[in-house]
Amino acid sequence: MTKPPRPPSPRQLAAVDLGSNSFHLAIARARGSEVRLLDRVKEPVRLASGLGKRGGLKKAARERALAALKRLGQRVRNIPADRVRAVGTNTLRLATPAPSFLAVAEGALGHPIEIISGGEEGRLIYLGVAHSVPAAAGSRLVVDIGGGSTECILGEHFEATRINSLNVGCVQITGKYFGDGRISDPAFEAARLRAQREFRAIERPFRASGWSMAVGASGTIRAAERVLRENGWGEDGITAAGLAALRRAMVSVGRADRLTLKGLKPDRAPVFAGGVAILQALFDRFEIDRMTAVSGALREGVLYDLLGRIRHEDVRERTLRGFQDRFGVELAQADRVERLALALLTHAPRSWNLHAARDGRLLSWAARLHEIGLSVSWSRFHLHGAYLLRHADMPGFSRDDQHALATLVGSSRREIDMSQFRAMDENTYERIAGLITLLRLAVLLHRARSPEPMPPLRLRGDPVRVRLHVSKRWLAEQPLSRLDLEEERLYLAPLGLDFGIAP
User: Fold this and answer.
1) How many angstroms separate the Cα of 109 from the Cα of each of 16, 105, 208, 274?
2) How many CB atoms lie within 10 A of CB 449?
3) Which of 54, 349, 399, 482 is deepest in the core (most CB within 10 A)?
4) Is 478 in the same domain as 394?
């Protein structure tokens, strides 16, 4: 009888990068402030090529993705959930049926999957690169050419200062200009000009800022550097002359399925022409002299970000504090609402199925930011706050967390816009509805903005009927609060909740 496998060390971390061209898994061990890679797995899935015109994922692409996730899931099965982070990028951002697909995908992987914004993707890419190159003075230009998007980032040390995510990627460009497998000079030129149009929009601010070194982080850029080096077209990084020689060589071959250039791996060949065209366009618009490819990228950035969360150096906390400062939040009031909302969470009916850690974190964020809309106007400030949270860059936050946060803040007072729940599955809806109820009660009960402590409060009920138990004496002394609580019954009714107060 064989012994069961030993569980992995709790020091292990895992990052899963669900890209538009490939899915990547990186497993590392935390050692001090560094992470040391233990294993890598790459699964070519060509997800972007399976994205339909209306945003639906084609059946073949879904099947490839789910099969890859099952294999990756086996490798991370025994790693604690709080030490695994899976992120989806451009194609999953664009996919319209993402919620239904994500539920199945998360089941295959065995862990939650976050769809991150282009800005968050850029931040994580820069973080991975910054930990992969020697420390140096001056600004860096970091570029990552993915399957569905290209990220251009400026930064110094470990901080990104400017991030732009452009809708141009190697799978996308290959499909449009080299879709039949043929590689011609006119097709190359058309692809290069298409990519140039994207880069033109950010060319001026990037060149005005300047940089001391240009770094490439993607599989496309690493493949280009390797091919240039092994074929004698570039001994020290990527140059415009080297790219021109590479383009001529690819055109002379004429077909992607016949590319046998030294250093080019077979799984990269089908989308290589699109990637090289984008790289040429970038060199032209930004007038780059030389670019160095590095191994660090999105998944390494995810690992370091995950390490920061474990060590209570969560970038989301810095983002929250920045929002509070930028929008002039009254910290004492935010703290009062946060403490009461979290206290009510401990009394929430079990049937609401709220998770103390996960949902407490989201409820805390919403309480701390529920008044940011006051910086715009007192009238409908909750809706102004929701708009800001839905559309602002929020480093560290997934797209789903950001939208959930905006939903809570936008529903924290007055009428609740039920249209925002249409795309939610039943479980998510019930969870968010419960959190909205807790946040609204905390905001309402602290309407007077008084430092006086709250009386003992308890929530009792079930999924559709809940009562807030509070002393008769307190209600008698707080007639406005009593009226607000009685009116809350009408505001919560659209959520399917029968709310009331009881002694």
Assistant:
1) 10, 6, 43, 30
2) 10
3) 399
4) yes
399/70 Cα distance (integer angstroms) = 24
Task: Please report whether residue 197 resides in a domain.
Answer: yes
Q: What is each CA distance from 96 to 56, 116, 156, 176, in whole angstroms? A: 6, 15, 36, 21
Low-confidence ranges of the chain (pLDDT < 70): 1-10, 97-99, 137
Q: Report the alpha-carbon distance of residue 375 to residue 73 in Å, rounded.
A: 45
**Quick one: pLDDT at residue 210?**
92
Same domain, 111 and 140: no
Q: How far apart are CA 65 and CA 339, in angstroms?
A: 42
C-alpha–C-alpha distance, residues 35 and 27, integer Å: 9
Q: Which residues contact 111 (CB under 8 A, 6 or more apart)?
A: 16, 73, 76, 81, 84, 86
Q: Which of 91, 47, 51 is nearest to 69 (CA)?
A: 47
Residues 93 and 157 in one domain: no
**Beta-ladder partners of 160:** 155
Q: Do the Cβ atoms of 309 and 395 come closer than 8 Å?
A: no
Range of the domain at 421: 328-502
Per-residue exposure over 400-433, b if at least 16 CB sit within 10 Å of its own CB, e if not: bbbbbbbbbbbbbbeebeeebbeebeeeeebbbb
Residue with tokens 């701390």: 368
Same-domain check for residues 145 and 102: no
245 and 279 both lie in a single domain? yes
112 and 149 fall within a common domain: no
**By the 8 A CB rule, do 373 and 382 touch?**
yes
Q: What is the pLDDT of residue 439?
A: 98
Which residue is associated with the tokens 């298409």?
Answer: 194
Task: Indicate the residue type of 246.
Answer: L
Q: Please provide residue 240's backbone torsions phi and psi, each rounded to the nearest 5 degrees.
A: -60, -40
CA dist 162 and 169 (Å) reads 20
Grouping H, G, I as helix, E, B as strand and the rest as coil, residue 141 is strand
**Three-class SS state of 457:** coil
Last residue of a domain, one of 272, 306, 340: 306
Question: What is the structure's pLDDT at 9?
Answer: 47
Extract the tokens encoding 88: 């989806």
**Residues sharing a CB contact under 8 Å with residue 219, sequence separation 6 or more, in sequence order:** 21, 22, 268
Pairing relationship of beta strands 213-216 and 291-293 according to DSSP bridges: parallel
Q: How far apart are CA 250 and CA 254, in angstroms?
A: 6
Two tokens at 54? 């209306």
pLDDT score of 332: 97
Q: What residues pair up with 88 in beta bridges, in sequence order? A: 18, 115
Cα-Cα-Cα-Cα torsion 266, 267, 273, 274, nearest 10 degrees, comes to: 180
Tell me the pLDDT tens digit for each residue of 387-414.
999 999 899 999 889 999 999 999 999 9
Which residue intervals of 138-184 are DSSP H helices? Answer: 170-177
Q: Residue 78's closest CA among 10, 31, 26?
A: 10
Helix (H, G, I), strand (E, B) or coil at 468: strand
Residue 323, token pair as written in the block: 């929002």
* Through-space distance between the first and last CA atoms of the chain, rounded to whole angstroms: 62
